């Protein structure tokens, strides 16, 4: 029986890689729904190739998509709009698998809707988990959703963990001999920049990642190491560990995607060429394995793997993420929201690169922390942190 897939964020980098794998396995998967915020012409092209039942776009873009689909003879594709549309496809009874690949907080409600509908949820949208934390993890348990990490590092960790890690965790026998998680980081395009050089880098330079081709926001996050900060928090939630349990290792070649250490002295690593199609295919088919176009690793060509400690002086993001995770409560929500606003401001050249972590730090220091009881608290905090971060952006930009 083929599985019906809903791709939230189909026009993005992860969305496109997902579609590429689905196209390779038409007997296993059908595309039920695709969504996009912009690039409506590309979305129509996707509809032409994959013929989903539903497409979701912002209300203001429905007419544009409708006319494009009409021209293509695809008027039978239903068009839904906005958050309600995203949630409707994410929880739709005909859907088996949801790829959560919207960028940022906008993906929270649809991702959570998929979790609450008990789907197999392939989690790329790390911001949704960082901001909602235990609420999403608890929902996954309550509604028997299969929340599988697509982020390459977390997917690697998942592959290196003992088979019964999550069952043991639930039965009060935690860790099964796991002693440490080693989260690898490429270090981004500015790994060897001095603090002075960092002050003058441009959005174009920040978006040019040495190993991965990704959306703009995550590219900037990789350059500031905010991405690794978000991933540290993501790992704590996914694998039920404290922040001290996760060590960040800078590994510029991005061949080892992360590692798990055990009490007997073993270190297990997952390796591969840096291509998101591998973790996407893994999460789609797990526990089976399916083919991708990604070539097998050639270690003779790779020749060298290097490792170093992250420099939290030039890249304070990791320190801030650890602080947010230690604080608990809504601190990670503040961390994420302040970062989203700062990254957008940097991309618009309203603030400098090194001001991104400064604004995040200010927001974490100034805003009152509180317990993250429920979604309303999370959403209210997210909004407040955005307003505050905008105020700092305006102050710095003037
Ligand atoms: P992207 O910018 O290329 O694509 C984002 C997608 O989300 C697009 O389809 C866009 O239309 C949609 N979108 C944007 N804003 C939206 C909104 N407000 N409402 C609804 N839809 C919206 O981003 P990406 O690089 O594909 O990353 C997507 C997610 O996956 C991010 O959370 C990122 O951190 C994560 N991720 C990406 C990679 C990667 O290699 N690109 C790797 C690991 C994790
Ligand atoms: Mg990653």
UniProtKB/TrEMBL annotation:
Residues 271-386 form the DXP reductoisomerase C-terminal domain. NADPH binds at residues 11-14, 125, 127, 215. Residues 5-133 form the 1-deoxy-D-xylulose 5-phosphate reductoisomerase N-terminal domain. Its cofactor is Mg(2+); Mn(2+). Mn(2+) binds at residues 151, 153, 231. Catalyzes the NADPH-dependent rearrangement and reduction of 1-deoxy-D-xylulose-5-phosphate (DXP) to 2-C-methyl-D-erythritol 4-phosphate (MEP). This is 1-deoxy-D-xylulose 5-phosphate reductoisomerase.
């Amino acid at each position: 029986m083929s599985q019906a897939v809903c791709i939230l964020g189909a026009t993005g980098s992860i969305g496109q890689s997902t579609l590429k794998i689905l196209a390779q396995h038409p007997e296993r998967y059908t595309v039920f729904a695709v969504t996009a915020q912009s690039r409506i012409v590309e979305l129509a092209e996707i509809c032409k190739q994959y013929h989903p039942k539903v497409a979701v776009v912002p209300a203001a873009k429905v007419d544009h998509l409708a006319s494009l689909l009409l021209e293509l003879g695809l008027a039978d594709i239903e068009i839904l709009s906005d958050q309600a549309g995203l949630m409707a496809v994410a929880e739709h009874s005909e859907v088996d698998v949801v790829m959560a690949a919207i960028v940022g907080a906008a993906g929270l409600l649809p991702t959570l809707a998929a979790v609450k509908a008990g789907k197999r949820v392939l989690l790329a949208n790390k911001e949704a988990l960082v901001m909602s934390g235990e609420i999403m993890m608890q929902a996954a348990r309550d509604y028997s959703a299969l929340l599988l990490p697509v982020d390459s590092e977390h997917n690697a960790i998942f592959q290196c963990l003992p088979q019964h890690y999550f069952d043991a965790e639930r039965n009060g026998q935690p860790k099964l001999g796991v002693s440490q998680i080693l989260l690898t980081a490429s270090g981004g395009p500015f790994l060897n920049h001095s603090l002075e050089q960092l002050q003058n880098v441009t959005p174009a330079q920040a978006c040019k990642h040495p190993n991965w081709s990704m959306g703009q926001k995550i590219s900037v996050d990789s350059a500031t190491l905010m991405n690794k900060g978000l991933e540290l928090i993501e790992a704590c939630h996914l694998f039920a560990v404290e922040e001290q349990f996760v060590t960040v290792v800078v590994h510029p070649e991005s061949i080892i995607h992360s590692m798990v250490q055990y009490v007997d002295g073993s270190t297990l690593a997952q390796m591969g060429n840096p291509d998101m199609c591998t973790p996407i295919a893994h999460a789609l088919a797990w526990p089976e394995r399916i083919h991708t176009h990604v070539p097998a690793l050639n270690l003779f060509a790779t020749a060298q793997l290097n490792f170093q400690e992250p420099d939290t002086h030039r890249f304070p993001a990791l320190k801030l993420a650890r602080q947010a995770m230690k604080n608990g409560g809504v601190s990670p929500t503040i961390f994420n929201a302040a970062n989203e606003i700062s990254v957008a401001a940097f991309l618009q050249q309203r603030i400098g690169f090194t001001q991104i972590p400064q604004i995040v730090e200010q927001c974490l220091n100034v805003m009152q922390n509180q317990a993250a009881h429920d979604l309303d608290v999370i959403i209210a905090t997210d909004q407040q942190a955005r307003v505050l971060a905008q105020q700092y952006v305006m102050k710095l930009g003037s």
